[in-house]
Each structure stands twice: as C-alpha cells, then as structure tokens.
Amino acid sequence: MLRTIRNGVLSAAGGILLAATPALAGTPAVGDLAPEFSLMDQNGKTQSLEQYRGQWVAVYFYPKDDTPGCTTEACNFRDNIFAFRERDAVILGISLDDVASHEEFAEKYSLPFPLLADTEAEVAEKYGVVRNLGITKLAKRQTFLIDPEGRVAKHYDKVDVDTHSKTILDDLDHLQQKTGS
C-alpha cells in the first residue's frame, strides 16, 4: 500500500522506496544545437551525430530492446525506412541497452538503421531523457528531429508508438518545405 510522496520519492509499505528523479541535464530546445555524441551501434561501429551533418536525423530514445512498445516503434521506423531515405533523413535509435542486446534486437526484427548503446546514460543525460528508477535507469521515449545544420528542429516528448514514424515524416515534409532543404 502506498503511503506518501515527498520530494519525488514514493514511500511504500514495508519500507520499499521508489524514486523517479529528473535528468541532470536540461532538454535541448528547438533551435539549439543538438548535443554531440559518439556511441557504438549494434555492429560494433562508432556512430556520431556529426557524421550525419547535412542530413535530417531522427534521434529516437527508447526504454528497452525487445519490449512491446519499443518493438512497435522500431518496426514502424523500419517499415518507413524508404520514406525517410527519400527525404534524406536517417534514423538513430538510442537506449541504455548494450551492443549485444541491440544486435539481437536489430537482427530479430530486421532493423535497417543504427541502434546506439548509451550504457552509461551520458547521451540520454545530455538530452534530458534519463528516467532514474532507483536501482536502474531507462531512457524516456522521446525523439529529437535534428536539421541538416545540427539544430533541434522538433522535440517529441509525447510519443504514440503506433503513429510516431508517420508523424515525423509529415513534420519532415513541412519543415523541408519551410526551409527549402
């Protein structure tokens, strides 16, 4: 039975405490330069945001490989990969899972885009999407659409896994018309 919530800490019967603390870093705002990163993907290759300069980049953070919502989201990105490529846009998935987990997940669902291992939560903290659950940390399900100059063009802090990929494609169409890129 739950008893009290004080300073973000939930006290439960039996002395069990659950904490949900906010991320240490702030979330980059639309128009800000996107925080740089270099992380290893599911194939053991280092990927950096900088290497995609000149292209649109959908950086999507997700909680955990091979869970229902994360699988739906990833498979929808997979199913729309050609539409992203037609718009000169790349997809980068980031979670706190390790390279081996990403390799299994990508192989199981034939995911044709990099899944980046942020095992120390350093990148997730830069983007303000770490959820600290006491004994474990997860990335919040949020996406940042980065423009070809490396600036945050759109931040999706509420994601519907069933429609998110299509929403980003629609926003890409609008933003590319607006900027002529």
Compact overview of the structure:
This protein has 181 residues and is α+β, with helices and mostly antiparallel strands. The chain has five helices and twelve strands. Helix content is 28%, strand content 28%.
Please describe what this structure looks like:
The chain is an alpha+beta fold. It has a single domain, classed as Glutaredoxin. The protein contains five helices and twelve strands. A five-stranded mixed sheet has the order 8-7-6-11-12. The chain has a three-stranded antiparallel sheet with strand order 1-2-3, with no helix packed on it. A two-stranded antiparallel sheet has the order 4-5. Strand 9 and strand 10 form a beta hairpin.
Order of helix and strand elements from N to C terminus: EEEEEEHHEHEHEEEEH
Biggest sheet, strands in spatial order? 8-7-6-11-12
Q: Please give the CATH architecture.
A: 3-Layer(aba) Sandwich
Number of domains: 1
How many strands appear in the DSSP assignment?
A: 12
Radius of gyration: 17 Å
Helix content: 25-40%
State the helix count. 5
CATH superfamily: Glutaredoxin
The shape is globular
Under the CATH scheme, which class?
Alpha Beta
CATH topology: Glutaredoxin
Distance between the termini: 55 Å
Largest sheet: 5 strands, mixed
**Rounded average pLDDT:** 88
Q: How big a fraction of the residues is strand? A: 25-35%
